[in-house]
Hints:
mainly alpha
Amino acid sequence: MNNQNKVLAHLQKYIVTYLFVALSVLFIIISGMDMNYVASQLLLRLNRNAFIVLALIIPIIAGMGINFAITIGAMAAQIGLLLTISWGVTGVPGILLAAAITLPLASLFGFLIGKLLNKMKGQETIGSLILGYFANGAYQLLFLFIFGSIIPLSSKVTIVGASGVQNTLNLTGEVGLYKAIDSIASIPFMMALQLFVAVMVTVSMIQYKQKKMPLDRMVTILCGSVAVMAVFQITPVADIFNGNHGWEIKLPLVTWILIIGLCLFNSTIMKTRLGQKFRAVGQSQTVANASGINVNRTRIIAIMISTVLAGWGQIIFMQSDGIGTFQTYAAHEQVGLYAGAAILVGGASIDRATNYHALIGALLFHSLFITAQTAASKIFGDSAVGEYFRAFLSYGVIALALVMYAWRSAKQKKAAQTDLVLAARMAKQ
């Protein structure tokens, strides 16, 4: 019975993840799409979206829910990209300049967001969503009227004979920002997987030898690594990634170094004093305040870090393979929604998230994006249904996560009240 309860609790916790796994497999089968194409598109989307999804983790741990205000970090990045294009800085220097401009802007925006969310404790998720919509109005005003008139810009980006910025800016050609990071170096997927597994095994063995990792965890990593490599040695699977069905799948090396670097940052910062403050505030603001932690300041720092990281993630997204253009007035609008939905699909909740949740969620969420349109076309005879299904999934997953969080909180509160009543009865006896 105890094991059965554990299984039910596990299924309850990860019901959304398992649902998406089932839907992903079903849609791939129904769509009949070539697996080499699906795998290449899925990894392409991971390349450009993983960094942004990982930017959501710290505020969740700090008890601030899904930070939909990362949309504002994306806006800061787009201001940096606009100025970079206007000044004619190309290639990697242009990307670095855009990132440098994003840092102070996103930090300022994050500070203001944190100050506002401190006035909305308990409603941060909804508050950050509304803030994103409000900031979008200010962003439109900036790009339509202020840039090009009050703030002069190059004719490369402004509308000739009028104020405001062009609706679409090209990142290819002489602009030189398209794939500026992705094209530095790339390696075959299978080689990247082998390197990653080798590093994981080596690090786990070193940590075990230094007594920083328990034996059971090291054994789990070793067994998992062997299982992964065995799966990718199966001929049909190996053919998909080796390009025997079309083209060889490659990973942009520098982009994935940045993604893995952010994973390490998220893990490392939680071991620092600041990270312990994030956890303490996330678990109980009352206890954290009684322990001498400045709760409001800690929450602001969490949002500032998330906003800056989201801005840098938007730069990675914009320069990535498959984009090539900069939709100045719309590129940021769905950033928070899709990133929030992705991390929830991976098994995260409003108050708990890890790197694994972010990466698995991005993988599952975008697998449906790739196959939904073709699958809907075959089922209903109309590919437009796939577009509606994507929007339904995005909003539906977020709504389900909020409902489950509220239900779980109410259940825990009721259980706590029951324990207090029982304790009071025992005290009377």
